[in-house]
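REQUEST FORM: STRUCTURE PREDICTION
Request ID: SP-0412
Submitted by: Lab K.M.
Chain count: 1
Length (residues): 472
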Amino acid sequence: MTTDERDTIAQETTETPAAATTNRKQPFPAGFLESISTGWAERPASLPPQRAEAPYAAARRAAVSAAFPGSRLVIPAGSFKQRSNDTDYPFRAHSAFSHLTGWGADAVPDSVLVFEPVEGGHDVTLYLRERADRTTTEFYADASIGEFWIGPRPSLEAVAADLGLATAHVDAFTSTDDDLTLEADDELTRFVSELRLVKDPYEIAQLRLAVEATGRGFDDIVAELPRIIDTPRGERAIEGVFHLRARTDGNGEGYDTIAASGPHACYLHWTRNDGAVVPGDLVLIDAGVEVDSLYTADITRTLPVSGTFSPVQRRIHETVREAADAAFAAARPGVKFRAIHEAAMEVIAARTAEWGLLPVTAEEALDADRGGQHRRYMVHGTSHHLGIDVHDCAEARREMYYDGVLEAGMVFTIEPGLYFQIDDLTVPEEYRGIGVRIEDDILMTENGPVNLSAHIPRTADDIEAWIARARA
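STATUS: Completed
RESULT:
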C-alpha cells in the first residue's frame, strides 16, 4: 500500500461517503464502505492459559497494596513515543507496569493498572484498549491502533485469562485528583523500584535466559570478526550481528549496544558505532539481550581484533579481570553493596600506582577525603542492580541500594574497567587509546555469588582461544 493510501485511510473519517472528505483527499468509494465491515470469519473463542509469571505478579501487587492502604494507585503502561513525523519508536511498557502485571513485550500501549481501595486492600483492574469491532472505522482507518494496520489486538477476556487480572476497556478509566501515580508520587515510585531489589524465581529464570542468549550473540560476533574487519564501519557490523541474535532469541536489546574499537573504547557510552575495527586494536563490546518478558542481560567483553593481545593490552586486560575477581570475592550475603566497588578499586589503585601512573601511593589514592587519583582511569562504578531495567531499581533509596546489604535473590553486575584516553599525557604512549572493561551478571544466593555469564570467555587466554576456534 502506498503512503498516500495509508494517509487517506488514517486521516479521513469514513462513516459515510459525505463525511469521508478532507481538503486534499477524495472520499472512500461507496463500495468500499459497504463491504469493508462484512465477510469476516468468526474470531476464535478460546482463551489462553494463564502465563507462568501471573502468580508472581499477583504477589508483587499484593505487596504494593499492603504498602498503600486506602490510596488509589495508578500505574500507566505509557504510550508510543514519536520518532519523526508519523513514525514512532517501538513501544515498551513502563518497567513498573510490566513488573506488576506480568505483561512484557506484548503489552498494549495506553493501558493503565489501577488499584482501587476497598476494605482490607484493593481491587485491581487492568484497563486496556480492546480489539475493535470490524464494523467500526477504527478497525481499518486508524493506523496507530487499527488491526488492519498493526495486526490482532487481544480481547479483554483473553488478557484477563492470560494475566489473571480483572480487565476493563480503557475508555472506562477515569482519573481523580487523589490518585497516586508513578513519577508524580515519590513514595510510590520508590516503593515499586525497591520491590525489584530481590528477584523472585521467575525473574531469575528470565535473567538466565537473557544471559544465555547474550552469550550466543557474543559467539556470533566472534565468528563474524573477519567480515567485521572488512567492513568500513565495522562497529556497525558488530551492532548488526548482535541485533540479529537479540531479535531472534528475544525482544531486542536491553539498551543501545556499545561496539567501541580502538580509542573509542575509552568513551564509556560510545553508541555511535561508526568506526572501523582494525587488527592490532582492542574492541570493547557491551551488549545485552532483552527477552520477551523484558528482563535483560548486561555483559561486556574486550577482544583483541587480531586474535592476540599485545603485552600491554594483556597487562591492562588482566588487571581489569583481577579487579573483577576481587569484587566477586567480596560479594557475600550480609555484605554492603558498596563493598563490591571498594574491592575493585583497591586493585585499580594498586596497579596504576605500581605502573607509575599516580602522583601518590595506592593507599593515599584510596583515602576517602583526599584520594581518588586512580579514578581518572575508571570514573564509573563497579556494579548496579540488573533486572527488568538494565540499571534496575534506580529510584531506590541510597540506604537500600549503594549502602544496602546484599541478599539472596539480588542480581547485579560486576564491571570494572581501565580507560586510557588517546590524548592522556599522564600515561606512557603505549597505553594511550586502550580501553578495557569486563562485565558479568551475578546472582547472589544464600551460599554466595554465582556468575551467570561465566561461560562467556573472560580471561585473556580463553578469549584468544575463543577467537582461534572461530577462525579454525
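NOTES: DSSP finds 15 helices and 17 strands in the chain.
Reviewed by: T.R.
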